[in-house]
Amino acid sequence: LLVDEAGRLERSARCEADCGGRAQILTLGYEPVVVGMARGERMDPAFAVDPEHVSALNDLAYLMAENGQAKDALPMAVKALKLSPLPAVLDTVGWTYHRLGESSRGIPYVEQALAGAPAHVDILIHAAVMHAALNNKARARNELETALKIDPKAADRADVKALQDTLAPARQ
User: For 58-76, what is the mean pLDDT?
Assistant: First the structure.
């Protein structure tokens, strides 16, 4: 899910690529929660999400993990995974573990997501960040290089710049 500067919900390239072309955006009933989360508001984990709506569960779990609520997001992400092992869902589970400081527990999910969507830039970057955190810098560099070949504009992202700094050879 993407929210622009004006707070409008935009189509998610993340889901569009992984949902077989059936871009699924949270129904309008979820929009205020998504916009609030994008603005840094905490989400009540008891929020009534359709328990069978994979995209709703996955997108809200991802937003929660990105906004400091990874512990509350994990059950939602795992529920989405049980419903559908889409690459985006696998990535969310793995990334949520990473946000909890458990990269070694999360990396198998992200690697499986990458196997299912090898050209997905966000998944490549998540894999690179997690491999770097696990001190597998050669693999992280390879994944980052692949992501930047697919989308050179990703080099402008703050997370990519931070990763590049992490992967840079030590200066002496």
Answer: 90
E-only strand ranges, 74-141: none
Of all residues in the chain, what percent are helix, strand and coil, respectively (each to 5)? 65, 0, 30
What is the distance between the alpha carbons of residues 107 and 94, in angstroms, rounded to a whole number? 6
Q: Which residues pair with 10 in a beta bridge?
A: 2
> In terms of pLDDT, which residue wins out, 166 or 5?
166
pTM: 0.75
Question: What residues contact residue 149 under an 8 Å CB cut-off, 6+ apart?
Answer: none
Rounded CA separation 94/103 (Å): 8
Residue whose pair of structure tokens reads 């996955």 in the numeric block: 58
Residue 40 CB contacts under 8 Å (≥ 6 apart), including other chains: 67
Place of tokens 């931070």: 162
